[in-house]
Design goal:
7-stranded antiparallel sheet, Thrombin, subunit H, alpha+beta, 7 strands, globular
Length: 154
């Protein structure tokens, strides 16, 4: 078996490309989540809590909320419903089970990040799954607008 000469590295271009695509997918998902959607969790007293969606897949979802010692919601053992709002008054309900949580600080703000498993037996799971497929496809096919085209209104 031949040895790789000292100082030389084998570069796995496929792996590097996959990492770049995954980074682009996550960035594009977050743009969609922040600018096009409202995402809320329902508390035990039937109130909506705004949450920041971080990532989603067919199997799971992650989100974060600002840490509030007076309002510890949700807990690690919670089954919760998340609402994905696509308009001001229409949403897809998604039932999730929290699997883990961890504290994080970003730009001086303390958050709790939650990792959840999506309940696949829910009535809206197929719609959610198609949304996940859309975000993946969008990430692959989207382009950054460079502002070089002028818009004319007739």
């Amino acid at each position: 078996m031949a040895k790789t000469p000292v100082g030389s590295e084998i570069i796995d271009f496929k792996s590097a490309q996959q990492e770049k695509l995954e980074e682009k997918r996550r960035k594009n998902q977050r743009i969609i989540f922040k600018n096009m959607m409202g995402v809320y969790g329902i508390t035990g007293d039937k109130k909506l809590n705004a949450i920041e969606l971080l990532d989603l897949s067919d199997n799971g979802i992650s989100f974060r909320i600002p840490f509030n010692v007076e309002k510890l919601w949700p807990t690690d053992s919670s089954d919760i419903t998340i609402r994905l709002y696509f308009t001001q008054d229409t949403y897809i309900p998604l039932r999730v089970k929290i699997q883990n949580s961890k504290s994080m600080i970003e730009e001086g703000i303390k958050y709790t990040r939650y990792g959840c498993v999506v309940e696949k037996s829910g009535s809206s799971f197929e719609t959610y799954k198609k949304f996940v497929e859309f975000t993946k496809a969008y990430s692959t096919e989207s382009y950054q607008d460079q502002g070089g085209v002028q818009v004319f209104y007739i």
